[in-house]
Amino acid sequence: MRNSKPIFLVEDDNVDAMTVKRALKDLKVTNPLVRAANGEEALDYLRNDANEKPCVILLDLNMPKINGIEFLKVAKADEALKRIPAVVLTTSKDDRDKVESFDLCVAGYIVKPVDYRKFVDAIKIVDLYWTLSELPSHEQENENAKLETNIAH
Questions:
Q1: Cα–Cα–Cα angle for 83, 53, 19, rounded to 5 degrees
Q2: Which one, of 104, 48, 50, 55, lies nearest residue 75 by Cα?
Q3: Alpha carbon 86 to chain centroid distance?
Q4: What are the structural domain ranges in the chain?
Q5: CA nearest to 57, candidates 39, 77, 30
Q6: Coil, strand or helix: which one is 56?
């Protein structure tokens, strides 16, 4: 990634989380990796002003408490969170999950490859995309949110 903001992994499986961490290390991605084990933990983390907002969310769909789709419904309806790019990283090949994810404005949907080399390739593509992609600055997001609030009132 091009900045020093954290990458936020929302993943309940410890092995999958370690695989993501290893792939990022192998790719020499230096952004800190922050992890939540479910959507409820993720929302708590993202809503805590003491935590830096991530540059991207890597999101599993199949999790306890609040699953990935439920997390997206809440996060994308929240003015402070809706512009944080989210990439689904899941085992689900279900078309309904894909459609619902894109309806909730995900930036991408990747089915986790079983083979480690293919997994690293998938993470490399995510890294390359976010290295090249222009994201709004936090200050600009705050200005836009103020304008939207003023217009609504």
A1: 100
A2: 104
A3: 4
A4: 7-152
A5: 39
A6: strand
Domain over 7-152 is classified CATH 3.40.50.300 = no
CA–CA separation, 23 vs 33, rounded Å?
Answer: 11
pLDDT tens-place string over residues 49-98: 999 999 899 999 999 999 999 999 999 999 999 999 999 999 999 999 99
Query: Which element (helix H / strand E) includes 7?
Result: strand 7-10
Tokens of 40: 């409820």
CA separation for the pair 4, 32 (Å, rounded): 7
Distance CA 144, CA 126 (A): 27
127-131 contacts at long range (C-beta below 8 A, 24 or more positions apart) = 127/1, 127/24, 127/27, 127/29, 130/1, 130/2, 130/55, 130/56, 130/85, 131/1, 131/2
Give Cα separations from 72 to 79, 86, 130, 148 (angstroms).
13, 8, 19, 21
Q: What is the DSSP secondary structure assignment for residue 82, as one 8-state letter?
A: T
The pTM of the full predicted model, rounded to 2 decimals, is: 0.85
- Please give the C-alpha separations between residue 56 and each of 88, 108, 115, in angstroms, as whole numbers: 11, 11, 23
